[in-house]
Amino acid sequence: QVQQTKLLRDISMHHLEVGTLQTRLKQLLNRPQSAVEIEPVPPTETPLHIPFDELLAAAQGQTPEIAAAQNMNERQKLQVDVAHMDFYPDFNVQAMYQQTDPGRYRPYFQMTFGIKIPLHYGKQRSELAQAEAGLGRPRSGQEAQAQQVAADLRQQYLSAQQTEELLKINREGLIPQARSGFQAGLADYRNNRQGFPGLLTSYLDLLRFEQDNWQNIPNTETAIARLEQMNGLWLPSDASEWSSAGGITTA
Q: What secondary structure letter does DSSP report for 112?
């Protein structure tokens, strides 16, 4: 009776969780809460075939923060180049056409040529030192952004790999073993060779492993979805699609 009551409690909590998720789904889909309940399809496992190095290269090439830091670094490099140019002479050529009084004077062209030669480089050296000092800041920011993206990507990648490994252990090991143990226990119980507590324990073990398996599938899909969000890319679920596409495909 106690075990039966526990199962009824778990079923009641499950229904409460389903109701909460239905409310959230209707809100996301902009449906009234009085609408028909959404019927979900069973989740399917999406294997992760993409190497981490290729994922990281794609993420670093498409992350807005890294792109902004790269642009800042390029702009600072241009400032350094401009500061170097101040050490060279500055040439100036001007041409002018002038007509003062058409009845008395003829129109004429005037051309001037000038050159500015820097004799003291104190100002130029100061501006160059300032530009070179500023060059390190965007480079440091770019490296920091790249490290942050790599760390976040690695965390999601490991999460997807770990949950995929758990799915494999449950699917190929724990669930078949627990099901075989329950079937054997059920046969022994029917032949009066095993008591009901042992049969119930084997059934609860099978139920728990199956629940863990169903919960790990959304965890894997969530990690893959976050990888796609970080890359702005579509990650194919089939290795043949990955090979035929020649790499990652932009979403």
A: E
